[in-house]
């Protein structure tokens, strides 16, 4: 993992890979996840990985699910050499509700920040040349209502971990 294909050219490059939940509400309504992300990051070109719960499986899932997601990510990094990886879990996520029960929005956000820190650490361990930006998609009953960047909160959470847990962390893109 983590090595770029030797035959990739600049034409094969994509600026980013976005990893988000497959929830239909990301595409339902006047604002969809691609439009919201484009308006925040300023470019249209990014690969997409959509899985139920987004980052949930990388932190709380079974090993075969984790491995499958990392294999997908590895393929995209090797093929398209993105500069950025965008992590986008969302509030009111059914996968998180199955794991943790119903929670208020503040509790959901705290769990997502913790999980984003874990996944950021994992990604940077495998792909030290990419930068990671973290977002939380705020969901209302039937639609995406906002996309909030939380990269600095994730970096602060990583920095607050005991040094033995983050000694090998590279926090590029988390400022």
Give a written overview of the molecule.
With 175 residues, the protein is an alpha/beta fold. The chain has one domain: 60s Ribosomal Protein L30, Chain: A, CATH 3.30.1330.140. The chain is 43% helix and 19% strand. The chain has seven helices and five strands. It has a five-stranded mixed sheet with strand order 2-1-3-4-5, with helices on both faces. Helix 5 crosses helix 6. The longest helix is centred in the middle third of the chain and has 22 residues. The protein starts with 15 loop residues before the first strand and ends in a 9-residue tail after the last helix. The N terminus and C terminus are likely disordered.
Layout of helices and strands:
Elements (H helix, E strand, L loop, with lengths): L15 E6 L11 H9 L4 E6 L4 H5 L2 H18 L3 E5 L5 H7 L4 H22 L4 E10 L2 E7 L1 H10 L2 H4 L9
Parallel strand pairs: 1-2, 1-3, 3-4
Antiparallel strand pairs: 4-5
Task: Compose a concise summary of this entry.
The chain is of the alpha/beta class. It is built from seven helices and five strands; from the N terminus they run βαβααβααββαα.
